[in-house]
Write a structure and sequence with these properties.
seven-stranded mixed β-sheet, single chain, alpha/beta, binds S-adenosylmethionine, three-stranded antiparallel β-sheet, 12 strands, Rossmann fold
Length: about 280
C-alpha cells in the first residue's frame, strides 16, 4: 500500500531514493524548461519567491558576493538562479546525473558554480569551506530520516553570523489525503522513526515514468524541524506559512502564479508551506 509505514535502514532507503532521483533527471531535463536559462536574466520561480524573504535577513540585504551552499540542489535551476542573483554558489546533491545536468546547464548559462556529490547528511565532511548562507527549498527534508544530523551539517557549514533558509511543504499538508474530495487527514503528522514507503513511477512534472518506483520518505512535524535547528545551535529569526506551493500536491489544487493552491474556499483552512530563517551566532 502507498504511504505504508515501514522499518528500513537508512542506507537501503537512501539507495532506493537515489536510484529514483537518478531516473527522474532525464524526465526533469525535458520538463523543467531549461531553455529559459539561455536568457541571462531568467530566474526560477522558486528563487523569485525565496530571495526577497532571505534578503531581509542578510547583513547587507542581498546575497551579492556571499558564499552560498545550496543543499539538495537537484538539476541546478535554483542554484544557477542564486548565482545569477550574485551569490558564489556550491550545489550539493547525492544524485550524480542531477549534478551532471546542473553542471551542463551552468556552462550553457555561463553561470559559475561548484557541484558536490554527497548525501546531505554527510555534507559537512565532504564540502570544502564555510558559507555565509545555507539554502534549501521545496522537496527536501521529507527525504531525510534524521533531522538532528541534518541540522548539525547546516550548523557546521555556516560561518559565525551565517544564515540558514528553508521553505518547504508544510507537514500538516503532507498529512492530508491527496486523493480525497475534501481536506482529510490520512498520513501521520508526527513521525515514529519509520519511513513511509511509496511505489510511484511518475514524477511531479512531465509525463514520463521511472524504472525505480520505490521511495521512502519521513514525516517531520514542525516541532521536530524547528527543534533540530535549535538543538544544533541555530537561532530562529523568522517563521512564516504560505498558501501556495510550486508543485501540485493534489489534483484538486488549482494553478496560481508560480504554483498551485487549494480552491479559494479552502485556501485559509490549511497551510501549504513553511519558511524558516535561522542564524548561527
Ligand atoms: C525535489 S528535489 C529539490 C528540489 C529543488 N527545489 C528543485 O526543484 O530543483 C530533491 C532533491 O533532493 C535530492 N536528495 C534526496 N535525498 C538526498 C540525500 N539524502 N542527500 C542529498 N540529496 C538528496 C534529490 O537527488 C533531488 O535532487
Amino acid at each position: 500500500m502507498d504511504g505504508q509505514n515501514v522499518e528500513i535502514d537508512w542506507d537501503a532507503a537512501r539507495q532506493a531514493n537515489r536510484e529514483n532521483w537518478d531516473d527522474r533527471v532525464p524526465l526533469h531535463e525535458a520538463a523543467y524548461g531549461l531553455e529559459a536559462y539561455d536568457d541571462p536574466s531568467h530566474i526560477s520561480d522558486v528563487v523569485i519567491d525565496d530571495l526577497p524573504v532571505l534578503d531581509r535577513f542578510l547583513p547587507d540585504g542581498s546575497i551579492q558576493g556571499l558564499d552560498l551552499c545550496h543543499l539538495q540542489c537537484h538539476i541546478g535551476t535554483d542554484t544557477i538562479s542564486l548565482a545569477r542573483s550574485g551569490a558564489v554558489v556550491t550545489g550539493v546533491d547525492f544524485s550524480a546525473p542531477a549534478l551532471q545536468t546542473a553542471a551542463a546547464l551552468a556552462e550553457r548559462s555561463r553561470a559559475s558554480a561548484t557541484w558536490v556529490e554527497s548525501d546531505v547528511l554527510d555534507a559537512r565532511a565532504v564540502v570544502d569551506g564555510d558559507f555565509d548562507v545555507v539554502y534549501t527549498s521545496i522537496g527536501t527534508i521529507c527525504w531525510l530520516a534524521d533531522l538532528d544530523r541534518w541540522a548539525e551539517q547546516i550548523f557546521g557549514l555556516l560561518r559565525p553570523g551565517g544564515t540558514f533558509y528553508i521553505r518547504d511543504a508544510h507537514p500538516a499538508m503532507l498529512a492530508l489525503d491527496e486523493d480525497a474530495p475534501t481536506l482529510t487527514a490520512r498520513y501521520p503528522y508526527f513521525g515514529d522513526g519509520r519511513a513511509q514507503q511509496w511505489n510511484d513511477d511518475s514524477t511531479y512534472v512531465g509525463n514520463g515514468t521511472v524504472a525505480h518506483a520505490r521511495t521512502y520518505e519521513w514525516p517531520h512535524p514542525l516541532s521536530e524541524i524547528i527543534g533540530s535547528l535549535l538543538r544544533a545551535g541555530l537561532r530562529l529569526i523568522h517563521f512564516d506559512e504560505g498558501r501556495t506551493l510550486p508543485w501540485q500536491f493534489s489534483s484538486r489544487m488549482v494553478e496560481v502564479p508560480r504554483g498551485y493552491a487549494w480552491p479559494q474556499a479552502e485556501r485559509d483552512l490549511i497551510p501549504c508551506t513553511y519558511t524558516i530563517v535561522a542564524r548561527k551566532d
